[in-house]
Amino acid sequence: MSSITLLVVVLAIAAVLLMLSSSRSSAARAQREQWINADEMLTRAESKFLVGEFAEAEYLFQSAFLKAEKVDTLLASEALYGIARVRMRHSRFAEAVPILEQALALKSSWPVAKPNFEQLLARELERARAEASSASR
What we know:
137 residues; mainly alpha; 5 helices
């Protein structure tokens, strides 16, 4: 094989590797942007909740969940917890129960263990079930 042919083969392989690397980094960048958007939306939702703008908070929690469920199950659980908190704030405990169950179901795929958050979800689920049960009597 001549040195020119070898050079062409090496350049072709380098071009393919560069294209593969570029597409992977684009996907990673898009995923990172989605995570940042979900996190920012979650922060805004928390702010709305704290000042009593519950309808806006619930909308933002739901939007954060839709973004987060694709990139980070822990963020998705946090968004679901926010939705459940809004429902519980309005004494809609029966509606909060399946949302909290869904948040807890995601724990096995959280990127890091969060035992305190897991315990908080479990306590809130227990409370929502108890309140829903007493309201239905």
